[in-house]
Amino acid sequence: MSERGTHGSLPDDAEEVLSAALKSARNGNENGFTTLWRFHNSRLTRFVQSKLYGSTIDADEVVSETWLNVARDIRSFNGGPTEFAAWLYTIARNRIIDAVRIRDRQVRPTAELEEAFWIPSPSTVEKEFEGSESVKRIVEAIQKLPPAQSEILLLRIVSDLSVEETAKIVKKSSNSVRVLAHRGLTSLKEILGGEQI
Questions:
Q1: Phi, psi (degrees; rounded to nearest 5) at 77
Q2: Coil, strand or helix: which one is 121?
Q3: Average pLDDT, stretch 105-122?
Q4: More confident position, 183 or 158
Q5: Does residue 55 lie within any of the structural domains?
Q6: Mean pLDDT computed over every residue of the chain
Q7: With bands split at pLDDT 50, 70 and 90, how would you rate the model's confidence at 112?
Q8: Is 5 left (phi over 0), alpha (psi -120 to 50) or beta?
Q9: pLDDT digits 0-9 by tens, 30-58
Q10: Which among 29, 69, 42, 68 is positioned nearest to 160, based on CA atoms?
Q11: More confident residue, 34 or 121
């Protein structure tokens, strides 16, 4: 199956495969669910690990809880591949909020972040990361941004979601997402001292 194109666009064949997988998964077919998991899991993991960078909260546990929620509720899900991506990331965001609220853990660095960026993918952003120090520096810089800008950059760049998918997840208009992403990238360049990002 083809991967996403630049910043979230789905090739036509992927759209068809994911639509069929969704229909199959809603009917309880394990193969359909597996197809959805294979397509989304690496990006979802990178998003959760980036969002929780510096936290003692177990990102893998949050990802697992997200997929368990999806498995439990997929029969009642209504929508296509784009809506599924928005639903998946909304569940992940809610699991992160729950984990922070319930566990009330202090922030400290974690060594697991770099592993999330080592998952093979054609994403141009990942190709820019030559070493773990670069990854840590960029994620730390993103975390210095206002929360709305930070989250939108993680969804757009790290998870490679489209403007429309991101807008559904954060419950903002597409125009607001574009503006926040632009402001976030401008601020990120300033934080990183004008380096190319």
A1: -70, 140
A2: coil
A3: 46
A4: 183
A5: yes
A6: 80
A7: low
A8: beta
A9: 999 999 999 999 999 999 998 888 888 88
A10: 42
A11: 34
Phi, psi torsion values for 107, nearest 5 degrees: -85, 135
Q: Are 152 and 73 in contact (CB under 8 A)?
A: no
Q: What is the 3-state secondary structure (H, E, C) of 130-152?
A: CCHHHHHHHHHHHHCCCHHHHHH
Provide the number of structural domains found in the chain: 1
Range of the domain at 48: 6-191
Contacts 24+ apart (CB under 8 A), 90-94: 90/168, 90/169, 91/66, 92/44, 92/47, 92/48, 92/62, 92/63, 92/66, 93/169
Nearest Cα to Cα of residue 23 among 80, 71, 68: 80
Inside any domain, residue 22: yes
What's the half-sphere exposure (Cβ side, CA atoms, 13 Å) at 37? Answer: 17
What number of other Cβ atoms are within 10 A of residue 7's Cβ? 16
Q: The whole model's pTM is what?
A: 0.69
Q: Does 197 reside within a domain?
A: no
Residue of 110, 107, 156, 158 whose CA lies nearest to 132: 110
Q: What are the tens digits of pLDDT across the range 129-144?
A: 445 566 678 788 888 8
Contact in structure between 105 and 47 (CB atoms under 8 Å): no
Q: How many residues does the chain have?
A: 197
Question: Is 1 inside a domain boundary?
Answer: no
Burial of 6 (0-12, 13-18, 19+ CB in 10 A): exposed
